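Make up an example, fold above all:
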Amino acid sequence: MTPRLRKGMVLLQTLVLSVILSMIAVMVMKWVLGRYMLAARNVRSNEAKVHSQGYSSQQFTTWNFNLTLVTSNGGTTMDTKSVRYVTEGGSSGMRRFLISSDEDQ
């Protein structure tokens, strides 16, 4: 083999190896970022659930089964997140409380 041909083959092998390594690095980064996004979404969802449950507990203890204290809707801010509630149903029958917190704030 001539030195020029050997030099060209080494350059080609180096190019192919660098392309393969960069593709592996991209796939690993995509996997890591996907896992991070999944974990971040899970944390925001759990945080919203905790805010909703905490606010509902606070309201239920304030109302103390006195239906005259229950308003049809309301809300507050907890840890810079807005939490809202809406009640459905009549004052004499069963009531349904819908408590929500926006997890994307």
The beta strands are 73-78, 81-88, 96-101. The helical segments are 3-63.
